[in-house]
Design a protein that fits this description.
Elements (H helix, E strand, L loop, with lengths): L1 H17 L1 H8 L7 E23 L2 E27 L2 E13 L2 E14 L2 E14 L10 E15 L2 E14 L9 E15 L2 E13 L8 E14 L2 E14 L8 E13 L4 E14 L9 E13 L4 E14 L10 E14 L3 E14 L9 E15 L2 E14 L6 E13 L1
Antiparallel strand pairs: 1-2, 1-20, 2-3, 3-4, 4-5, 5-6, 6-7, 7-8, 8-9, 9-10, 10-11, 11-12, 12-13, 13-14, 14-15, 15-16, 16-17, 17-18, 18-19, 19-20
Length: 431
């Protein structure tokens, strides 16, 4: 079965490449504009932790700490993607993506369009995805069909002002349903105004609503209404970017225990103090406020921020350092011990940007995670987090992308110490 699936998929992909010229002509596009990429990718995630256990020793028992190491993800896969432009320009295209790992395969087709009528623009697309596990133990939700369709219209109503309207719908069908993987459908729409101010500055205000239905559940369906606003502002010495979103979600459950309002947003700003020195600051927050706090759902809010002073090392690299702050507060309600915490630390960022050939960013945060209430299963800890993300060209059209992160937690109670490690890499060739 494994060989049959592998051969079938890659014979199709190979055929797309070999007869690409004919397919491009049939689609009506420019042969030279076709983009084809293929490559290999690897994902790995593991965690080391400790468990206290009672061990029998003669007629007595002793408490011992056992160290465990567990791999949650160890996946190697092959992938292929192609973009076929249409006869009406590059914004009208067919995107194809295929992935094959040792235990699963995935195929996605996504035709997209963009049509201009005068100064108005009608755009949209369809996505159809099939993912299937053909080997190994089945996991809830790992085999499914997914479909999505969207359309959007943009009409000028003034100087630098456009009215926006859109409709979107999606649905998922799982090969086998469980309490955590249920078939659903969802449809929604949005309307608003986009503003262009010149000098790469813009803003928008959109209202949206959606309805989700879950055939196998009487309470997981919901109706939602919300608003989203964004500002992107460039000025002589820097830029400011902000986005805010608020959504009110009402579930079909007559008891209303899941009904809530969710608010989230973030602000980021970078200002140059001189030709080489700059200040970078950001803050993001989120809050979920339940209509009825209960044992399962508690209203909670979190804020994360940093303010750093940076220095331009060269035309392609920068270094910045400053304080890191994070705070979480959960309404106590029926929970006797809440997960409230305050986190303080020092953050250091190093960035490299060399045109289209190399992008890399390294982030390190060292600090203290202080719990408001400690318990037998949780304690405050000192942490070290390191994350590296990069994308670069190796040679010719061969490129590599990677993401690597590690985190150490040294708890006040040593038996709670943990170490987490995540690594993802992809090597790709463009044709």
């Amino acid at each position: 079965m494994f060989l049959a699936v592998r051969c079938l998929i890659f014979l199709c992909l190979f055929a797309c490449v070999i007869v690409g010229g004919d397919a491009r002509t049939a689609f009506g596009g420019d042969t030279a504009s076709v983009s084809v990429r293929s490559g290999v990718a690897y994902d790995y995630f593991s965690q080391r932790y400790f468990i206290d256990s009672l061990v029998a020793s003669g007629g007595d028992t002793t408490l011992e700490s056992w160290e465990f190491s567990r791999k949650y993800l160890n996946d190697f896969r092959l992938w292929f993607s192609a973009d076929y432009p249409g006869a009406l320009g590059r914004k009208n295209r067919l995107h194809i993506l295929g992935e094959l790992s040792d235990e699963q395969w995935r195929l996605r087709l996504a035709p997209m369009y963009s049509l201009a009528v005068g100064q108005s623009v009608l755009s949209g697309g369809v996505e159809l995805e099939r993912r299937r596990r053909y080997k190994g133990a089945s996991v809830s939700g790992d085999s499914y069909w997914f479909a999505l369709a969207r359309t959007r219209i943009s009409v000028p109503v003034g100087n630098g002002v456009r009215a926006i309207g859109g409709i979107i719908g999606d649905l998922a069908r799982f090969d086998s349903t469980t309490s955590s993987a249920l078939n659903y459908w969802r449809v929604g729409g949005s309307a608003g105004v986009d503003f262009e101010f010149g000098n790469l500055s813009s803003a928008y205000l959109h209202l949206f609503g959606a309805k989700r239905g879950v055939p196998d559940s009487t309470w997981l369906g919901y109706q939602s209404l919300g608003a989203e606003a964004s500002l992107s502002w460039s000025y002589n010495r820097g830029d400011l970017n902000a986005i805010f979103r608020a959504e009110n979600r009402a579930y079909d459950d007559p008891d209303g225990i899941d009904d809530h309002v969710r608010i989230d947003g973030n602000i980021r700003s970078k200002t140059f103090l001189s030709s080489r020195w700059f200040v970078f600051a950001y803050a993001d927050g989120e809050a979920t406020i339940y209509d009825k706090d209960n044992f399962l759902n508690q209203s909670v809010g979190r804020i994360r921020s940093a303010a750093m002073v940076g220095f331009t090392l060269s035309e392609t690299s920068t270094l910045a350092v400053g304080p890191h702050l994070e705070w979480l507060d959960e309404r106590a309600g029926l929970i006797l011990i809440t997960p409230d915490y305050a986190e303080t630390g020092i953050r250091c960022d190093a960035d490299i940007l060399a045109g289209n050939s190399l992008f890399a960013t390294l982030q390190s945060v060292t600090g203290k995670h202080k719990l408001k209430q400690q318990s037998e299963t949780s304690s405050s800890y000192t942490f070290q987090r390191i994350a590296l993300m990069g994308d670069g060209r190796v040679v010719g059209r061969l490129s590599v992308s990677l993401f690597w992160s590690v985190e150490w937690e040294w708890h006040d109670r040593a038996s709670d110490d943990t170490f987490s490690h995540f690594f993802s890499a992809s090597l790709s060739q463009s044709f």
